[in-house]
Amino acid sequence: MMFSKDFLATVATPSLLVDLATAERNIGRAADYYAKGRVKLRPHFKAHKISALMKLQIAAGGCSGVTCATPYEAEVLADAGIDDILVANQIADPASLAALARAAGKKRVTIAIDCAKHVELLEATAKKHRVRFGALIEIDVGMGRCGLNFGSDALIPLAGAVKEASRLDLLGLQGYEGHIVMREDRDMRRTMVWQCQEILRLEKERLEKAGYPCPIVSGGGTGTWDIAAECGVLTEIQAGSYVLMDSKYVTLDVPFENALFCCTTLISRRGPYAAVLNAGLKSMTVEFGMPKSADGSFSVITLADEHARITPKRGWTAQVGDPVLMIPPHIDPALNLHDAVAVYRPPGIAETWAVDGRRRPQIRAGEEK
Fold first, then answer.
1. Is 281 helix (H, G, I), strand (E, B) or coil?
2. What is the pTM of this model?
3. What is the pLDDT of residues 228-280, one digit of tens each?
4. CATH number of this structure's domain 5-15+254-355, picked from the four choices 3.40.50.150, 1.10.10.10, 3.40.50.2000, 2.40.37.20
């Protein structure tokens, strides 16, 4: 067991635990890789939402800045003193735009856009709050979410609109291959990533021929962390899950280890092959399947709000009251369900880190001053 019994005895269950030594190995592997090449890492905050952990990632080197998903995450990062923040998302509501401005009043903030309305909203917000924003035009490289379609007639006019804005800076393109990052076959991932980056290469070429420099081409994720860097188009990779990992990503051939665990308590055992743990859907989500046993000693059958029904393997010796570790299936929403994590530093020193990136918008936007 990677955690000492004394440490586990101090943890209220269910809680998320971080094995810091493992997380630091993951951070070091990524930092060493990106320090050697042209492509840099822009680690994604949304994966863990812990500013203390993000500071370790930046300090390790190889980073061009940080990525996040929401304006409220950008505020947390800016308040923590972290610079060069990319909000890799389209922002359109007044409260979120105001949050962007608050972050941009402290640190450099860039936002993804895909239409002229985004330019209008960002420019008006920047003028009102006397800040500047960077902008990346998002291209849909196959995920079918946000972004301009490949070859869109709107690309050059949109770049022109950013250039004409007095408080916006066009910095390049974003294209995220989210439909690829969890493909199990590495050769298939490589082929599909190359196809996505050909789209970005051609769109970058179009921008530059029209007179718009494109110094940043941003994309990638943990599942394509090295493949995407090798294709020669991206300048930065937005990987996030690599730091802590989960039971889904660890099935891929990536050189990162599980560093995040859910500590539970065995609360009922009915015979050798039926037992219940005190962690359910309020502690983890199941869109990527059931949680896994940290040591392979049982299978999770179902999750309810507060319970996990499990089937132990032959010879499992755990008794009612014992701590039991599971690996969450999906790191991002699991962290979003918790206010803090317990951090284990060998030989057993424990500390608590706030999941401070869980900051939420107010229910009512109110009048922004």
1. coil
2. 0.95
3. 999 999 999 999 999 999 999 999 999 999 999 999 999 999 989 999 999 99
4. 2.40.37.20
